[in-house]
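## retry 2 of 3
previous attempt timed out at serialization; input unchanged, resubmitting
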Amino acid sequence: MVVVGLGPGDPSLVTAGTLDAIAATPVRFLRTTVHPSATLVPDAASFDDRYEAADTFDEVYRSIVETLVDSAITHGRVLYAVPGSPRVLERAVDLLTADDRVSVEVLPAMSFLDLAWVRLGIDPIEAGVRLVDGHTFATSAAGQHGPLLVAHCHNRRVLSDIKLAVDERGDTEVIVVQRLGLPDERIFTTTWADLDREVEPDHLTSIYIPALASPVAIELVRFGELVRTLRAECPWDSRQTHASLRRHLVEEAYEVLDAIDGFDRHTGEGVEDLQEELGDLLFQVFLHAAIAAEAGWFELADVARGIHDKLYDRHPHVFGDHEATFEELPASWEAAKLLEKGRTSILDGIATGLPALALADKVLKKAAVVQVPLPEELDAAARSVLAAAADGPDEATLGRALLTLANLARAHGIDTEMTLRTATHEVAAQVRRYERLAAESDIDVISVGVDVARALWRAADETIGE
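## retry succeeded, writing output
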């Protein structure tokens, strides 16, 4: 695989090495024909249609790589031409060079950056300029004050996303650079407020931001710095460990729950309390991450990256081609967790130290996912408890029933916590027994229908009885 760059736009800026490679390689591909120098690659197949067919740019680039690799395997030698330099914001090239199915040769080329520094009259090293992609501006430029050169600003939506990512004053200046090196080259200054209103973007548009008063994600960055300062200078914060913070983490979580209970979503009353309590809980997350970073274990970015990737993988119905109804989601979620964690039971991972009612709720939910029939006496007890409710169960009825049961236990000297925990463990044992029997029969109890599952459980009960 030979990868070449077509320069910033003017065909005269394409290197002799690139022209020789094009001439020597008859099987040619263009990332896009929307570039002034694309005509230098005759008889080339382009990937312009991929941008319309895919939902994300990542899908586009991975699709391009698969096509290129297949062609290289078939023809032996293939050329792939991209705008600018192959090593500047070319995700498909990064994927290609990491693919061990092909040998990749990347030829150097002039990028738009070489012209940008000349036109802007700056030394990027001395000025400390950071190059970021406009499509990922909110994350790529997080915490940055500038200067920033933002590429791939090809439409108003990208410009609008950049503008909204920063809480910036409207009169902050932004320099727009367009079509560098071409006869219709244009460089002009606009304001932050007019960024997505006065600029007519195209595929050769970038913006230069000399400075930002409020950098992207500044509040989270400031908060992280504050927590690190507290760890270094506050006598209390500096002595804390993961273990010593357990009590405070639980307390803050319960205070968030209290704030949620006191919040009126119709009037907004109590929203300040909810915001404050969420901040206290966030402090616990930042503090635990700071302690781990000091030990060299992980940082806050690792925490964010981990939960991002986990949620992405567990939502194939959102980010992939898997389809699932609302009713099917619990089983899909549990199956994803079993695969991800390498667990043998859907009960694995439940904190056994949970309060009894919370533990019972989790175990019973898991039992429903694998369609384990609950003991008949449990079902009968539930019906009798709810008999007083003419229109079915409601929170008030259930609350009074639980309170009545707790009072009855107290009157007879029965420990409700241990009693409920024991009964819950019995259900958990039944779930694990059925899972083991299903595994021995090579049956996936999560995906089979209800009737099949019930038949399995009846057969299992008969076997156990014998």
